[in-house]
## 1
Amino acid sequence: MAPGCSVSLHLEVRFEDGFVALSTLGEEPLVCRIGDGTLTPAFEATLLGLEPGSETHIIGHGSELFSPYDESNVHWLARDDFPSPIEPRPGLVVAFETPGGYETGGVIKRVEGEQVEVDFNHPFAGHSLTIRVQVLSVT
């Protein structure tokens, strides 16, 4: 696998407690072109040189492989900012629309009365990860 190649692969991402945060195993594989921005350059670097049919396990940190954790991406929102019938609770992932019209996800960290703390960092940022990659094809 090299920059510019089209790749089809299965991906499984586990947090250090064993929780499977993402898996395409048994589902449609991820298809992308190395360098097209689908994957971060740091994550792509771990894939370079892999051949079709190979499988590898990567142990790394989400802040290095996906996105740095930024404390300024954690915000308090009013409970009223959540669309009905969503009842905010810790761990819930909620889709929000930015002022520019883009959709972004946030993970609810805690609820205190009418205020809800939401983390808008990449869900893998700040976590130790074990990533299983099965390369299906490279063209």
## 2
Amino acid sequence: MKLEHIQIQTNDIQKTADFYSNVLELQILEQNSKSVTIQAGASILKFTENTQFDSTYHFAFNIPENKLKEAIQWCQNKVGLLLIEDQSVVATFENWNANAVYFYDNNKNLLEFIARNDLNNSSTAIFNSKLILNISEIGIVDENPFQLGQKLNTKHGLDFFTKNQNSEFFSALGDDEGLLIIVQPKRNWYPTQIPSESNPTEIRIQNNNEVATLIFK
């Protein structure tokens, strides 16, 4: 599954544009007083302004499987990487055969660079923003993640992620290329103490050569 286009909210368009263009060095495709649209590898990330918005989104970017160490070095003097439980900045997901680092954007959204070993997408290039491959995860909040997953499977043919232990508390739909991470409200976004909240999110996905738009409120 591919996450082609994600639309979420920010309370400050200009600061958001500054972060993604100057800190993460991603290309701005379009900007006006109400929105900013950013190219993130093969995906598009759009922020719309809501001056009253005060919540946290979680999303992740795929990077080449062999570039996590370089990505950590690239992040120095750009963003503060979050410490995991063992005081390392690297989170290891054995079942998913992946490693990741986490950081915040200007909105206090929880962002993630994740290197997935099963994608076999290694690169010989020195890490920079051009090696941010795509948006690979977006967090969705629902009272019953497994039930929502079943509905999305029936309506759009989205499969549960086979590497995840899907449950009524935490479920994932998709594959290594793109995932919907569905959690219950007030579940802390790993590895933080920030409780999850349901936020307006619009997602255009491509799955089995079909395109669908998912809207969550």
